[in-house]
Amino acid sequence: MVEVTVARLGLDSATNAYVVILKEKLGSRLLPIWIGKPEAESILVQINDLKRERPLTHDLCKTLITGLGGTLRRVNITRVEKRTYFAEMQLDGPKGLVAVDARPSDGIAIALRLAAPIFAPDALLTTTELEGDEDADAGGEPTPGALGSVRPLTAEQLQAYLENLRPEDFGKFTP
User: Fold this and answer.
1) Angle at 171 between CA 167 and CA 172, to 5 degrees
2) Which member of 13, 40, 49, 155 lies 3.0 to 4.6 Å from 149 by CB, making a disulfide possible if both were Cys?
3) Residue 79 to residues 87, 122, 124, 167, 173: CA-CA distances in angstroms?
């Protein structure tokens, strides 16, 4: 397993899906994972240190973990099967270490809130360089240009998006 960090989060305009790009902590290899809109928003809120009036689900998870006397040791992206990624969160609590199955996007969002490391199998990391990755050679973060029209979202874009959400943007509720 190799420690990774969140390098970028963007929108793949080809598929209109969000992509979180994990980068090898001590290298330049990448792991792009396509994720859902709510998880992307939650990750962006945390990365950009935006304050919400009410807690998001991942904030609630953080409060539950710490409130019950636990710590998040790490999040492992464990495998990919049929284009679906799997992860587990390793929680240490009063009864010892527990591995909890999780979607990678949820694990990442919670790991960011609890400052826990994220790991991925060496075999899942790609050596593909990103287009326009001039900053990577200088030690900066890559821009995800080579991953099929991925546009990074800025804090301002996220803030404007969140402020303009309407109830119907969340889908229909059927009891």
Assistant:
1) 95
2) 13
3) 7, 11, 8, 35, 33
Tens of pLDDT, residue by residue over 112-145, are: 999 999 999 999 998 765 444 443 333 333 333 3
- Note the pLDDT of residue 175: 43
> Does pTM top 0.90 for this prediction?
no
What is the per-residue pLDDT for 111? 97
Dihedral sign for Cα 151, 149, 128, 1, please.
positive
Q: Are 117 and 4 in contact (CB under 8 A)?
A: no
CA angle centred on 121, ends 115 and 125, rounded to 5°? 95
Question: Taking each helix axis from N to C terminus, what angle separates 104-114 and 37-47, rounded to the nearest 10 degrees?
Answer: 20
pLDDT of residue 17: 86
DSSP string, 40-52: HHHHHHHHTT---
Ranges of residues in the chain with a pLDDT under 50 are 130-150, 169-175
Torsion of CA 82, 108, 141, 156, to 10 degrees: 110
Query: By C-alpha distance, which of 31, 47, 166 is closest to 113?
Result: 47
Amino acid at 161: Y
